[in-house]
Amino acid sequence: MKHLLNLLFVTFSLNAQDLQPSAMLLQKGHIVKSTSNGKIYQLYVSLPVGYDADDFAKYPVLYVLDAYYSYPLLYSMHKLLDNSGDIERIIIVAVGDEDQSNRQWLISRTLDYTPSSDSFADTDIARGAGLDIFAIKSGGARAFLKTIREDIMPFIEKTYRTTADRGIAGHSLGGLFAGYCLLNEPDLFTRFGMSSPSFLWDRGEIINSLKFARIDSKAKIFISEGSLEPKVMSPFIKSFIDGIKDKNLSLTYHLFENETHASVMAASMSRMLRVLYSAK
């Protein structure tokens, strides 16, 4: 399991070492400081076609993690699918760090998106990324979820015209966090996108949480993975799906052929938007 974590989380992050933020990420987004973990987050907002500050229309909001690499993709997909009428009118909010460096991205997401602390995985990820072995710390999902609930959402709902229909989506560890939200804050979100969710984290501890979870039957869920991902991921994803199947949920699963853990992200984002927000 240790070597798998190194392959999944460290190799994926190292592949991004030469990636420079797009021009849109060089522009400052909204800045929000967490009252729970003290961290500073940037929020990048993509508004629906026809959004007018002077009218009274309100829109659902989709919160998406890893703004560093998700926002440039999502912005383009949002505009294309919105203009074509393939999805309903929504506001997309990408959540990222104030510090846009790859180092901080890896440190921050490992802390924020993991429900439990795994010191062995922390050390493995840090070594694989060439960081000090104490640079990586996990287990901050509870504080990050509180940050979303008490700091980020109030800011967005005060600044933009929103409904109470909220979604959360993420890839890899971000997908793990979306699953954590489904099990631990069922009334906060109604739609959940989990791309290649890392449910194997900490020996699959999230699977054990299923039996105690109270999940809102109105939840709409999209889970996907690539056929070329490490095979050990699939059993954990399957176990998670099996654990929520009997809860009368709207659940869609999709396997993307010939896609790896990294390459599947773009395809899964497009499909996720169409599944969770298909035009009515």
Q: Please work out how many helical segments DSSP would assign.
A: 10
pLDDT averaged residue by residue: 88
Range of helix content: 40-55%
Give the ordered list of helices and strands.
Answer: HHEEEHEHHHEHEHEHEH
Number of domains: 1
Strand residue percentage: 15-25%
Give the CA-based shape. globular
CATH architecture: 3-Layer(aba) Sandwich
CATH class: Alpha Beta
Radius of gyration, Cα only, in angstroms? 18 Å
Could you describe the 3D structure shown?
This protein has 280 residues and is an alpha/beta fold. It has one domain: Alpha/Beta hydrolase fold, catalytic domain (Rossmann fold, 3-Layer(aba) Sandwich). Helix content is 43%, strand content 19%. It has an 8-stranded mixed beta sheet, with helices on both faces. The longest helix has 19 residues, at 141-159.
Write the layout of secondary structure elements.
Elements: H1 2-14, H2 23-26, E1 30-33, E2 40-46, E3 59-64, H3 67-84, E4 91-97, H4 102-112, H5 119-128, H6 141-159, E5 162-171, H7 173-184, E6 191-195, H8 201-209, E7 220-226, H9 233-244, E8 250-256, H10 264-276
Parallel strand pairs: 3-4, 3-5, 5-6, 6-7, 7-8
Antiparallel strand pairs: 1-2, 2-4
Helix pairs in contact: 1-5, 3-10
